[in-house]
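User: I've been trying to design a sequence by hand for this structure and keep getting stuck. Would you show me what you'd pick, starting by listing the structure so we're on the same page?

Assistant: Good idea, let's start from the same input. This is the structure you sent:
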């Protein structure tokens, strides 16, 4: 009996494209090889890719560059608006340059093109003083002064009203050396004086850093809480409070962050019911009658009033 089967000793690649089963086999092989190559590339370059990943920034621990400088309030003398506005001295412009380099270069760049090192992550980006487009308050002297006086919070632009009026005039005059700006008119200088009383002078308020302000507020809250806790411990009429709390410390602390509840029983209820029993109040308060709510509210207001 003879075997009529003929065995191929070589692969006929032309048949691969005409035979579906062989074609699919080739596809699987190509995919497998591609995965292996990609995996090998990833492993070999993993350290490089990791080094180039954006680094996580902890905004809580980040040192704020926009924090204000601590300083005492002072009396700022009035200025001759027309003289400083239309005929700035070289000395004033030089002062403006120094102040610009100290306060503005980090965002706006040395030449005012908005390319400072601290402005890379800002959106919108810092103002390019050479561009005529997109100015929130305009490119006029009046508009630029308004920006320095009030800031533009939504754009990340701080107010610089801690500087004297004369110093801010100097900064504006220096910025105007970067490019061609609109002429300064008598009307806009008059409007500036009328709006901000530049000729009369003014008294600036004391200014402290955000960190110091936060500590002061925290200290005041702690002091207030301790006083309320003392009142509670020395009260002879606190039975309704004891009955409706599981942790008096947490209960009093949850009320310590707001004053609105003292004059509004509905806001008081919202605070008490919003996080039971984690806020220190007993879950059973949901069953209090209106009269009992009034009594509980009244006793707690009394504790916070004797300070």
């Amino acid at each position: 009996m003879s075997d009529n089967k003929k065995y191929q000793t070589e692969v006929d690649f032309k048949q691969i494209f005409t035979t579906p089963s062989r074609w699919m086999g080739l596809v699987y092989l190509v995919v497998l090889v591609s995965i292996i190559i990609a995996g090998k590339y990833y492993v070999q370059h993993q350290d490089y890719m990791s080094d180039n990943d954006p680094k996580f920034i902890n905004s809580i621990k980040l040192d704020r560059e926009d924090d204000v400088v601590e300083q005492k309030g002072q009396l700022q003398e009035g200025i001759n608006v027309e003289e400083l506005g239309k005929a700035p001295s070289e000395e004033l412009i030089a002062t403006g340059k120094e102040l610009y380099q100290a306060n503005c270069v980090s965002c706006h760049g040395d030449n005012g093109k908005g390319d400072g090192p601290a402005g890379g992550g800002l959106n919108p980006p810092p103002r390019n003083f050479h561009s005529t487009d997109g100015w929130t308050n305009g490119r006029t002297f009046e508009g630029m002064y308004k920006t320095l006086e009030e800031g533009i919070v939504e754009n990340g632009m701080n107010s610089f009203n801690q500087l004297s009026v004369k110093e801010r005039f100097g900064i504006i005059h220096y910025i105007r050396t970067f490019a061609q700006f609109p002429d300064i008119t008598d009307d806009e200088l008059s409007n500036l004086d009328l709006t901000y009383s530049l000729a009369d002078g003014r008294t600036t308020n004391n200014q402290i850093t955000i960190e110091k302000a936060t500590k002061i507020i925290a200290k005041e809250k702690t002091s207030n809480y301790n006083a309320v806790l003392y009142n509670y411990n020395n009260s002879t009429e606190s039975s309704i409070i004891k009955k409706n709390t599981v942790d008096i410390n947490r209960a009093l602390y949850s009320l310590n962050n707001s004053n609105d509840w003292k004059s509004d029983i509905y806001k008081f209820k919202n605070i008490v019911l919003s996080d039971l029993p984690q806020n220190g109040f007993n879950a059973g308060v949901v069953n209090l009658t209106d009269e009992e709510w009034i009594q509980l509210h009244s006793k707690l207001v009394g504790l916070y009033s004797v300070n």
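That's my pick for every position. To get oriented when you compare it with your attempt: Residues 20-44 form the longest helix (25 residues). The chain is about 50% helix and 0% strand.
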